[in-house]
Amino acid sequence: MAELHVNIVLASGARIGRGKAVLLEGIRDTGSISAAARALGMDYKRAWLLLDSLDSAFDTPVVERKAGGVGGGGAALSPFGLELLGRYRRIEAAAMALAEADLEVLEQHALPSAGPKI
Amino acid sequence: MAELHVNIVLASGARIGRGKAVLLEGIRDTGSISAAARALGMDYKRAWLLLDSLDSAFDTPVVERKAGGVGGGGAALSPFGLELLGRYRRIEAAAMALAEADLEVLEQHALPSAGPKI
Q1: What is the pLDDT of residues A3-39, one digit of tens each?
Q2: Which of B23, B90, B91 to mutate to test the interface with A (most CBs of A within 10 A)?
Q3: Do the Cβ atoms of A84 and B106 come within 8 Å?
Q4: How far apart are CA B83 and CA B70, in angstroms?
Q5: Around Cβ A116, how many Cβ atoms within 10 Å?
Q6: What SS3 class is residue B66?
Q7: Which residues of chain B does A16 touch, with a Cβ-Cβ cutoff of 8 Å?
Q8: Among A65, A14, A6, which residue's Cα sits nearest to residue B117?
Q9: Fewer Cβ close by (within 10 Å): the C or N end of chain A?
Q10: Tell me, what's the ipTM?
Q11: Over 80: is that where the pLDDT of B107 sits?
């Protein structure tokens, strides 16, 4: 079925989309940036860049790093990170629900293979 | 103010987003692919690729080319192209309206300059 992907674009130009939401969920669920990246098949460097871009977009940290300890520390979403993720997923679900009938009609006209994805 | 950008992603992987919507509006308003691209500051080749990807996504043409005539012919949206554009813009406006309060809260935490845009 067709889907709706949403991007929040702040006045500064910073974007929050599906890739960042999935990464935040991975960190929430694994307690570690590297474990989240691994679970998503995402380059660690890319995960780090996505988080860096989130951290420079807001006046409040999105992820809290915990140094040291057995296993070399970890990471968790900050309260603001959890709020950001919740708002993103809520907007996405509501937008998808309101678009459902339109998406169904468009899918009826869709060809199975779409050629180049641009 | 923050904005919501939406992409329709069909089961085939084909995407309809803001770039294609703006191009379709340009063709509707100018009656010509090259005039639309020029008005948008878009490469003609890119405009052509976007339209090609739309045409291979659906079983119905999105743009109708008119050959010949004074000025070398032109282009117009097909009835399906107008419908696609209308549905996209309606989904976008409704999603933006439902996200408004969330976007306002997030914008209150936003820094003016967001660093690298990824």
Answers
A1: 999 999 999 999 999 999 999 999 999 999 999 999 9
A2: B91
A3: yes
A4: 29
A5: 10
A6: strand
A7: 106
A8: A14
A9: N
A10: 0.86
A11: yes
Residue A69 reports pLDDT greater than 70: no
| Cβ atoms of residues B62 and B54 within 8 Å | yes
Chain A positions touching B112 (Cβ under 8 A) are 11-12
DSSP code for A110: B
CA distances from B88 to A91, A101, B70 (A): 17, 12, 33
> What topology does CATH give the domain B8-109?
Arc Repressor Mutant, subunit A (1.10.10)
Give the separation between CA B55 and CA B51, rounded to whole angstroms. Answer: 6
Size of interface A-B (CB pairs under 8 A): 175
Burial class (CB in 10 A: 0-12, 13-18, 19+), B71: exposed
Any idea which residue has 């308003």 for tokens?
Answer: B29
3-state class percentages of chain A: helix first, strand second, coil last, to nearest 5: 55, 15, 30
- Tokens 């935490």: give the residue: B109
B52: tokens are 């090609």
